[in-house]
Structure formats: structure tokens, C-alpha cells
Design brief:
The two termini are 28 Å apart. The chain has 2 domains: 4-128, Beta Polymerase, domain 2; 131-186, no CATH class. It is built from 9 helices and 7 strands. The protein is an alpha+beta fold.
């Protein structure tokens, strides 16, 4: 991770806003991978949330002028269940917000996320996707991206190597089947 203070500043208002709105969310992507031991420098953080159009005005009010945010892009992302970003102006840290598609897998990941502090000071405790779910999410992104991303491949490999003895393999296999990445998971587990 880059400067943990920048991460803290960029995430704090957004996660507080989601909590105020009663919107479930979790931290995923490279920040979650780094939390689980597969360290990688990044200038963004991925959040998945269950955001509705009724939340937009209040979200924008709560995060305030410290963020660049496009209201039309947020509404569009909610309608398409895709992604929008918020840029924390004081740090230039980008928060990529993925709107949940509310598939069974999405609901499962947000339910299983565990609360941890992302920085050693303990100032920011947020739900972070479990290592199993980070692996599955990265496998899904690897598949969606045409199975060519070396970055995703390396993250998955490191996460599995670091956590192999502690992984819930029954959950991984069952859920990988549900997500459509069981063949990719089997490749890593057999190595």
C-alpha cells in the first residue's frame, strides 16, 4: 500500500457516509489483497456497496467538497450496476465504487466481510473481503479481462501461496463453481 495516511483520509468520509446511509459495503481489490499479505502499491481503493438512487444526494452532501464526484456518473453506475469513482482532492487518492449487482455471490461476499483496521493506528475499521472472497473476485476479474492480466494472476498466486494452509477450500470450490471460475481455481490449487 502507499501512504496509509492518504488511504485513511480518502476512505474515512466515504465509509462514514455509507454507514450513515445504512448501505452495506466492503473493501476489495488491491487494498484487500495487501491486507491479506499480497502487498502491492496502489493509488486507489475498491469498494463494493449496495447503493440506490435514493442515496445519491445524501452521499454527495456527506462526502462534501473534498471529493471530485460526478452526479450523472453515479446515477448511471447505479442504473447499470457498474462503477463510478470519487477522487479525494487533498491526496489524489481514487475511490472506485462498484455498485453491487446483488447476485448471490455479491450478497455472500458483503455478508462474509470481516471488520478490521486498515492502518496500524486503528483509526479506520472497515469491512474487508475475506481472503477466499478476494481470490474469487480476482479470478472473476481475470476471466472477465480475457485471462491476460499478469497483475491479477500474480495477486491470485501470492494470495493462494500465502494462505494455502488456512483457506476454506470447500467454500472456495463451491463458490468458484457458482461464479464460473472453478477451472481457474483448480489450476492454482493443484500447483
Amino acid at each position: 500500500m502507499n501512504d496509509p495516511f492518504d488511504l485513511l483520509l480518502a476512505l474515512k468520509s466515504v465509509t462514514e457516509a455509507f454507514t450513515h446511509l445504512g448501505t452495506r459495503y466492503y473493501v476489495g481489490g488491491s487494498i484487500a489483497s495487501s491486507f491479506h499479505g499480497a502487498m502491492r502499491s496502489t493509488m486507489d481503493v475498491d469498494l463494493l456497496c449496495e447503493l440506490d438512487e435514493s442515496h445519491v444526494e445524501e452521499l454527495l452532501r456527506l462526502i462534501g467538497s473534498d471529493y471530485y464526484a460526478s452526479k450523472p456518473a453515479i446515477y448511471d453506475a447505479i442504473r447499470r450496476q457498474s462503477c463510478f469513482n470519487l477522487i479525494h482532492l487533498p491526496t489524489s487518492f481514487k475511490v472506485d465504487v462498484f455498485v453491487s449487482q446483488r447476485r448471490p455471490f455479491d450478497l455472500q461476499v458483503v455478508q462474509r466481510a470481516e471488520f478490521h483496521s486498515l492502518v496500524s493506528s486503528g483509526d479506520l475499521v472497515v469491512p474487508i473481503a475475506t481472503v477466499e472472497d478476494v481470490i474469487l473476485l480476482k479470478l472473476e476479474w481475470y476471466r472477465i479481462g480475457g485471462e491476460v492480466s499478469e497483475r491479477q494472476w500474480d495477486d491470485i498466486d501470492r494470495l493462494i501461496q500465502l494462505s494455502r494452509t488456512n483457506l476454506d477450500q470447500a467454500y472456495l470450490k463451491e463458490t468458484a463453481e457458482l461464479v464460473g471460475v472453478r477451472d481457474l481455481l483448480d489450476h492454482w490449487l493443484s500447483n
